[in-house]
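Fig. S4 source data, part A: sequence.
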Amino acid sequence: MDNTNITLPLLDVNSPHCALRVEKAIRTVPAIAGAEVDLNAHVANLPSTAPAQAVREAVAAIRQAGYNVATEAHRFTTTGVTCAGCAKAWAPS
């Protein structure tokens, strides 16, 4: 499987020292094949073969190191979901 590039916006990484700390934190995540922090763009670029799991683990590692990652939430309206079984089928895992 090809690697997928994942970009995480970093909110408070403003120095080379901070960027290095974020890179070291991300490297503790087993699913991450490598990581680069672009200090000028304030992002972490992650190549990963397990994007969903890698993102969750990388965000947790960055936050544990004392830095913030910008997140975005989406809300969708669904129709035809009329029982708990249907709702469970739609819920993210």
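Fig. S4 source data, part B ends here. The helical segments are 16-26, 51-64, 84-90.
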